Amino acid sequence: MQLGIHLPHIGRKAGPDSIRRAAIQAEELGFDDVWVSEHIIVPENAGYPPSPNFWDPLLTLTWAAAVTSRVRLGTSVLVLPMRHPLPLAKELATLQNLSQGRLILGAGVGWLEAEFDALGVPFKERGRRMDEGIAMMRAVWSQDPVTFEAKWIPAKIDTMRAQPQPIAPIPIWIGGSSDAAVKRALRLDGWHGSRVSPEQAASIVKRLRAERPGPDFTISLRVSCNAQTVTGMHDVLGTYRDAGIQHVMTAPEDRDIDSYLATAEAFHRAGEGL
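Below the sequence we write its predicted structure tokens.
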């Protein structure tokens, strides 16, 4: 089983030194990848997310890439419909090349309608914009010159050029447990779920593997832990592994960086040998 760790770029522990220390620790411990999340703007007094202090995910991964050489760099998840695909494709291709091909694009449609409203993006079109945005980015990454006819996203791309293109394909893992999210994931490179119990995992794996049995499709889960819960993670990870989950990323909930680093070390130790 492969293990990932969420970087401390959210809340009171976020900061350049915290992110640097966490990325270096992840590489030294042997984690397979480091991860970030995304919110651009959130309502005041929102019940969730617990903090409005979200450092930009792609700049955070670039900072982490600069102090590491091996760990992969993942997004859990970028809300693609909130962003225009052309500048995003440029940013992702640049990060892929700066990191020598270590990027994983975890992507989702989003759920916070007020955030879409603030950005001027129609919330009810997010699924269609998601699919068209992925297709547009893949076209830009693989065609030179590129022509793309857009229906939902404001764009006119007719025999144009966008470089650099990625030095290696950027795998796309789709987050979300809805039927639409699972179907979207099956058309791409992987599924990155969350809030899935070990008991629920087996049925989801069965559905995914019925259509995508090969090693070119990754089944990943995001879980939470902290200093109080991490001691029981060995058995939990073993149950996920037995259900067919290939990759688990944890997001430590500790509020200070020293506690975070201790939880990260304990989580990696819990996964050893699995």
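The radius of gyration is 18 Å.
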